[in-house]
Amino acid sequence: MLVNLILTSFKPFQIEKSPKMSLNPDDLHPLLSYFEECHEGDLLSFAQWLDKAVYMFHYLPMDAFSELERQNTCHVLMELKEAVLKIHGGQW
Predict the structure, then answer these.
(1) Is it the case that residue 62 has pLDDT exceeding 70?
(2) What is the dihedral of CA 83, 85, 90, 91, to 10 degrees?
(3) In the chain, is it the N or the C terminus that has fewer CB atoms within a 10 Å radius of its CB?
(4) pTM, rounded to two decimals
(5) Residues 68, 58, 77, 10: is their CA dihedral positive or negative?
(6) What pLDDT, in 10s, does the model give residues 26-53?
């Protein structure tokens, strides 16, 4: 019941489109810190959590998100997982 209340009051976060910015390695420091602090540097652990997030979409009510929103969100999560696994394979 609490889940339904949360989902019905959920307003999707809207991101305004802005011009593309160029990233440098220092811009990724917060992300690297997150991996170290929350996953103790274990990128495979992070990849497993991404898998769990995608799996959990199956248990949300069908009207919580449109099919396209589900598909796009899962795609982004899986692309992030793939990138993390490439980093893991390249560094260790």
Answers:
(1) yes
(2) 110
(3) N
(4) 0.65
(5) positive
(6) 777 888 888 888 888 888 888 999 999 9
Instruction: Kindly state the tokens that stand for 77.
Output: 């999560």
Q: What share of the chain is helix, strand, coil (3-state, %, to 5)?
A: 70, 0, 30
- The torsion region of residue 76 among left (phi > 0), alpha (psi -120 to 50) and beta comes to alpha
* DSSP collapsed to 3 states, 64-87: CCCHHHHHHHHHHHHHHHHHHHHH
Tell me the C-alpha to C-alpha distance, in Å, between residue 72 and each of 36, 65, 84: 28, 11, 18
Give the span between the Cα atoms of 51 and 77, in whole angstroms: 8
DSSP state for residue 12 in the 8-state scheme: P
Tokens of 88: 């893991």
Cβ atoms of 41 and 85 within 8 Å: the answer is no
